[in-house]
Amino acid sequence: MKQTRTHYSDAQNNVIDRILATEDALVPSSGFLASVMERVREEAAAPAPIPFPWKRALPGAIVIAGMLGAGAFELVREGLPAAGEFALTTPHLSVAMEQPLEQAGWVALALGVSVFSWLVSKRLAGGSGLL
Amino acid sequence: MQPERRRTGPTVCRGANHSMTTTTHAAEDLADVDSVLAGDVQAFEGIVRRWQAPLVNMAWRYCRDRGRAEELAQEAFLRAWRGLASWRRDSSFSTWLFALAANVYRSDLKRFPTVTVPVDEAPEPSRPATQHHALAAQQSTDSVRRAVLALPSRYREPVILFYFHEMDVAAAARTMGLPEGTLKARLSRARALLRSRFPHLESEHAAMEFGDLKTGKEAGQ
Q1: What pLDDT is recorded for position A3?
Q2: A33 in contact with B at a CB cutoff of 8 Å?
Q3: CA of A42, closest CA in chain B: separation in Å?
Q4: Is A84 near chain B, with CB under 8 Å?
Q5: Contact criterion met (CB below 8 Å) for B80 and B47
Q6: Beta strands in A1-131 (DSSP E)
Q7: How do residues A97-118 score in pLDDT, each as one tens digit?
Q8: Smallest Cα distance from B124 to chain A, Å
Q9: Which domains does chain B have, with CATH numbers?
Q10: A48/B contact by beta carbon, under 8 A
Q11: Phi, psi of A125 (to 5 degrees)
Q12: What is the mean pLDDT of each run of 10 residues along chain B (221 residues)?
C-alpha cells in the first residue's frame, strides 16, 4: 500500500517536473539591451555622490566617545562600592517632588546642550540649516 | 527611479539553455568585468548581451509578467553594474549575478507582490474528458505554474530556482545562498503542497497523453 502511494507521488512529481521544467523561454525585447546600457551610461556620467565629511566629523566623534567613556568610567567607579551596600528600598517620590527647580535646571541644561550641538553641527555642515 | 515600462513585450521561444551559456562564457565575463573596472563602460554591453535572456527568464518565473520581468532584469543589471567591484571571484560570475538578481527580484516582489491567490484556492484544471486534449493539457499546465506563485514564499523561490537551473539543486542552492539540504527539504515540501492541490494531475496527464496517442493513430489511418 505504502509502495503504491510512493509510486503515485513519484508519478505526480514527474508530471510536475515535466510541467515546470519544460517552460517556454522569453526572448528579451529588441530594445532591452539599449535600454539597460542607456541607464548604465547615465549612471556612469552622473557625478559621484558627496562623501561623508569624516575629517570634519572626527573631532566631534572623538569628543562624544571620550564623554561616553568618561561617563562609563564614572559609573563603574561610583557603582562598584555602592554595589556592596546594595539594598532594596522603596523609592521616595516625595523627595523628587520637593526639588522641582533643580529638575527644571537639569532639563534646561540638557536642552541648551542639544541646541548648542545642533548649531555647531549646522555650522560644520556649511550653514544650510532649517533657520 | 523606476525604469520606463516598455509597451512591446519580449517574444517567446522554446528551449533557451542558460546552463550551457554559464560554462562557455566565463572567460568573456572575466575580461569584460576587468575592462569595466578599468573604466570601459561599453564593455558592460557584452555582459548584458550574454545574460539578458537568462535574467529576463528568471524574472519571468518570479512574476509571470513580461513587462515587469524586463524591468526587474534591468534593475538587476544596474545593481550588477554598481556592485561589480564586489564580485570576489571565488565563485563564477554567473553565480554572483544570479544571486544578485534573485535578491533584487525577491525584495521587489516583497514590496509590490504579484496578484496571487492562496495555493488552496488556485484553480484546479477542468476535466479533460469534456474538452479537447491539447486545450485541457494547456489549462492544466497553466494552473500548476500559477499555483507555484501562490505557494508560501519560503517554498516558492526554491521551486522557481530549481526549475530555472534545469533541476540542478546545487545551482539553485548557490543562487539562494542556502545549504543544499535546506533547499531539498523546501523543494520536497513545495512539491507535496502542489501534489495535494492537484491530486488528479498524474491521471489527467496520462489520459491526455492516451487521448493524443489515440487521436494521432486515428489521424494516421
Answers
A1: 52
A2: yes
A3: 11
A4: no
A5: yes
A6: 25-27
A7: 566 777 788 889 999 999 999 9
A8: 14
A9: 18-111 (1.10.1740.10), 119-220 (no CATH)
A10: no
A11: -80, 0
A12: 40 49 77 94 95 95 92 96 91 94 93 69 55 72 87 92 92 94 94 85 59 51 50
Nearest CA in chain A to B148: A20
Best mutation target, A4, A14, A16, A37, to test chain B (most B CBs within 10 A): A16
Identity of the residue in A16, A29, A41 whose CB atom sits nearest the CB atom of B9: A29
CA distance B195 to B199: 6
The CA-atom distances, in angstroms, between B111 and each of B76, B108, B149 are 16, 5, 15
| Residue reference for cell 546594595 | A86
Phi, psi at B114, each rounded to 5°: -70, 155
Q: Are B98 and B160 in contact (CB under 8 A)?
A: no
CB B170 within 8 A of CB B180: yes
What's the grid cell of residue B123?
484553480
pLDDT of residue A9: 64
Phi, psi of A26 (to 5 degrees): -80, 145
How many residues in total does chain A contain? Answer: 131
Across-strand partners of A26? Answer: B12
Please give, rounded to a whole number of angstroms, the shortest distance from the CA of A15 to a CA of chain B. 6
Cα–Cα nearest to B54, from B97, B109, B88: B97
Q: Which amino acid is at B123?
A: P
B14, three cell numbers: 522554446
Residue B147's contacts (CB-CB under 8 Å, 6 or more residues apart) are B119, B122, B194, B197, B198
Closest CA to A37 of B126, B94, B3, B57: B3
Whether the predicted pLDDT of A88 surpasses 90: no
